[in-house]
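SEQUENCE, C-ALPHA CELLS:
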Amino acid sequence: MNSNTAVRNIGIGLTLIGFILLMMYVFYEILAGDGSLIPKLSIAAIILGITVVLLSLVKEKRTVKDKEIERKY
C-alpha cells in the first residue's frame, strides 16, 4: 500500500468517526430535550435512517468494481 492510499484511508476513517460522533451527539440532544415523544422519535428515526443510507452507499462504492470490458479498436 502506498502512502497516498494510507493517508486517504486515514482521512476517510477520521471523517467517518467525526460524523458518527456528531450524529450521536445530535441524537442524544434530541432525546434528552424537553418536549413530546413523537417528534423526538421521528427526528431520531430520520437521522438514523440517513446515517444508515450514507454508510451503506459508502460500503457499496468501496466494494463495487468497474466491470466494463476495455475495448480495443
Summary: The chain is about 80% helix and 0% strand. Residues 3-32 form the longest helix (30 residues). The chain has a mean pLDDT of 80.
